[in-house]
Amino acid sequence: MRPEKLQAFVLSTSNYGERDRIVSLFTLEHGRLKGFARGARNSRKRFGPALETFARIELQLNHKEGLSPLQSADVITLYSGIRSELGAIAHGLYSCELVECLTPEGHPLPRLYRLLAAYLEQLDSGYVETADRRMFEINLLNILGYRPSLAECSRCGSAFGERGAMMQQGGELVCRFCAATGRQIPSSALNSLNFCLATSRFGQTAFDAEALLTAGILLDESLATHSSRRLKSLAFLQQTCG
User: What was the pLDDT predicted at 17?
Assistant: First the structure.
């Protein structure tokens, strides 16, 4: 089997034995997969800094089910701007763990690959904003088919309008007639999230304080519902950035 050349982000790494490393990768060509980097722990000559978390790399590996032997890896970018600021590091680690936790293995998701690239580039440029985090999250949910309905009741189909929506357990959004109780999500939050889906550029979305708070509550609930585990990076993000 000839090695295949791929583009990828390093989502996480873990040690294996005394010499080797298992690498979680999000590739443009095959989506998420696991790579086996033999000898990566006791020699940096073969892989250098290419196996650092949220590095963007070009690699060669023998793609197969399970662990794919990693032959070589060259750095495209390490995002040095992210690595120089603690808040940016927290957001970068969080975005990579979200992708690792929510995506299926071996399923190409080029739109999500481009979204992650755009978000890391925004963080690398020095802009670390909660609004950009929320934009990344709603677009990730949308690409994966997990996005809550932002325009109309998920039960009866009536438009939310200026009255906003009521959030139910799991992040479901319904109208006031279908649910008398629940967390109110104002129309300003829904409008801002819809704008996040319409624009392709980070740094362009305007949230007022209430919209940013309530949109965050909705997204946190939705992401927790679809995550198979609690994200370790989330606690670090909350500790670092509030």
Answer: 86
- Residue 212's identity, in one-letter code, is L
Beta bridge partners of 6: 59
Tokens of 33: 């997969």
Q: What CA–CA distance (Å, rounded) separates 150 from 174?
A: 9
Domain count, the chain: 2
**What is the extent of the structural domain holding 33?**
4-78
- The answer on 9 and 51 residing in a single domain is yes
CA dist 121 and 99 (Å) reads: 16
**Cα→Cα distances 98→46, 95, 133, 141, 240, Å:** 29, 5, 11, 10, 17
Same domain, 66 and 96: no
Is the domain of 143 the same as that of 197?
Answer: yes
Burial, 132: exposed, middle or buried (Cβ in 10 Å; 0-12, 13-18, 19+)? buried
Inter-residue contact 216 to 130 (CB < 8 Å): yes
70, containing H or E segment: strand 67-77
pLDDT of residue 220: 97
Distance CA 183, CA 159 (A): 18
So what's the pLDDT on residue 1?
62
Q: Which residues of the chain have pLDDT under 70?
A: 1, 43
DSSP per residue over 124-139, as a string? HTT---HHHHHHHHHH
Integer Cα distance of 197 and 134 in angstroms: 11
Contacts for 74-77 with beta carbons within 8 Å, 24 or more apart? 74/50, 75/48, 75/49, 75/50, 76/7, 77/124
Indicate if 110 and 199 belong to the same structural domain.
yes
